[in-house]
Design a protein that fits this description.
By secondary structure, the protein is α/β, with parallel strands linked by helices. The protein is 47% helix and 14% strand. The N and C termini lie close together (6 Å).
């Protein structure tokens, strides 16, 4: 079996991380070796003083894709967890990683805003959407809040992802199972 990579993409708050972790658990239960590549962790190392500029994002996403490529070339399967709001980065992954799949977690912005407000981790700014709206309303710069995907910067929906999950309608366990079944057919049982 050749190593593969699956990129879970979607707006911040669309449920990428919770589904990636469920999928990771499921794969490990059947002894499939897989590395969990999370943009939030990588960005902290690549750009410790994050400004979330387009230039910084481009640098981080190109590195993210390159890491995925290197891992798969060395026989390691990869779950890629990142917003990836520009098609060009996802297409780069498709170009550089032979066994690649893109799973788009489609979710309305209002649901993403709700979920993101309840997120508890130290990798990303909490209440990101709320702070972005506050910045737009007041015009004041807010520390660590650059252009926010879905508010200031559009999310470029994929033209033909390998799979679409309506994450506002399908719970994390069920959608992770669907992703697992897809990967099983496409890559694992080859």
């Amino acid at each position: 079996m050749k190593a593969w990579a699956v990129w879970l993409t979607g707006l911040p708050g669309s449920g990428k991380t919770v589904r990636a972790k469920e999928l990771l658990k499921k794969l490990k239960q059947i002894n499939i070796k897989v590395e969990y590549l999370r943009m939030d962790e990588i960005r902290k190392v690549l750009t410790p003083k994050q400004e979330y500029t387009e230039k910084e994002r481009d640098y981080a996403y190109r590195a993210f894709v390159l890491i995925g490529k290197f891992l798969t070339e060395n026989g390691i399967n990869v779950i890629m967890d990142a917003t990836g709001h520009r098609k060009v980065w996802r297409e780069l992954a498709r170009e550089l990683i032979p066994n690649f799949a893109e799973v788009y977690l489609k979710c309305p912005l209002n649901i993403c805003i709700e979920r993101e407000a309840n997120r508890k981790n130290n990798l990303v700014v909490s209440n990101l959407y709320k702070k972005a709206y506050e910045r737009l309303k007041t015009g004041k710069k807010i520390k660590l809040v650059g252009d926010v995907i879905g508010i200031d910067v559009p999310f470029e929906e994929p033209d033909s992802p390998d799979m679409i999950i309506d994450s506002d309608k399908i719970d994390p366990k069920e959608s992770s199972e669907k992703i697992f079944q897809f990967l099983n057919l496409k890559f694992i049982k080859q």
